[in-house]
Design goal:
Length: 276
């Protein structure tokens, strides 16, 4: 598990391209028969990917957590962005097709991941946050999610937000998680951009081709920077940073948040007059 520290916006404005990428970009999450994990000190969020091809993979605590199991003091959200696969937790087995979500509550045994077809491996993206009580583990399909339609084709940002783990959906201690799908011809996400001082966020991009890129925008609203992002890469967004972007085509992204509250609407839209 790679460890990353928190950063201060006063320092971040002096970062060059490499440093920005080292701190905020998670460039490799889906590697065959591996579980990739990044522990960020920003709200202690763990971002990970599991890509089982020829073997079953187990998510274990490892040394960094000093815990008896990964979920001893944590909760976990999993969304599959690949072929269908299985998540085994104790004597329960959950089948996850593309874009289905599984919430695992505190206290669950170490989950194992497998693919139904090694030619079309499952790609389990996951985000975990500290948890202080048990909530039931729940699988949700896209139909179970709360769908919010936003944007328009005129502004190249027609998209649908699917909220899975959130205040009015699957309950959790602090994790809020879902995904957004852009319509064909729409390339902009989360514009006008916003910040939320009470929560950090992680964006994970998917449904991009090899030759596609998203110019992910970050930074304080009056000190914006960009990170060039490929398919299946993620970007950490501290609470002081905007998180937005434009791609070379339409795409999807999984967003996950942790922090002080779970109020999705507790965000501050950027006044475009102060946006630089
Ligand atoms: O705080 C909320 C998150 O940034 C995302 O849910 C926003 C988003 O998916 C979108 O505008 O498309
Ligand atoms: Zn946000």
């Amino acid at each position: 598990m790679q460890i990353r520290h928190s950063t201060n916006p006063k320092d971040a404005k002096h970062y060059d391209t490499n440093r920005l990428r080292d701190e905020y970009l998670i460039d490799s999450l889906m590697r065959a028969d591996e579980i990739c994990l990044v522990y960020s000190q920003i709200d202690r969020v763990i971002t990970g990917g599991a890509m089982p091809v020829n073997s079953e993979l187990t998510l274990a605590a490892g040394d960094a957590l000093r815990a008896s199991s990964f979920l001893q003091r944590r909760e976990l959200g999993i969304i599959n962005v690949g072929g269908s696969g299985q998540v085994k937790v104790g004597d329960k087995e959950y089948s996850l097709s593309k874009l289905e979500c599984l919430y695992l509550g505190r206290g669950e045994p170490d989950p194992t991941f497998s693919s139904d077809d090694s030619a079309q491996p499952a790609l389990f993206y996951m985000v975990s946050t500290p948890a202080h009580k048990e909530y039931p583990s729940v699988k949700s399909t896209q139909a179970d999610a709360n769908a919010i339609h936003l944007g328009s084709l005129e502004t190249s940002n027609k998209r649908t937000i699917f909220q899975y783990i959130h205040e009015k959906g699957v309950p959790s201690c602090q994790l809020v998680m879902g995904l957004t799908i852009l319509d064909t011809g729409s390339v902009w996400n989360t514009f006008p951009a916003h910040t939320h001082d009470r929560r950090m966020e992680v964006y994970f991009y998917f449904n991009l081709g090899e030759q596609d890129r998203v110019m992910h925008l970050m930074g304080e609203p009056d000190e914006t920077r960009h990170i060039v992002v490929k398919n299946h890469q993620a970007v950490l967004s501290p609470s002081w940073s905007i998180h937005s972007g434009a791609g070379t085509r339409n795409y999807g992204f999984i967003w996950a948040m942790a922090g002080e509250n779970q109020a999705f609407d507790d965000m501050d839209a950027i006044d475009l007059n102060n946006f630089r």
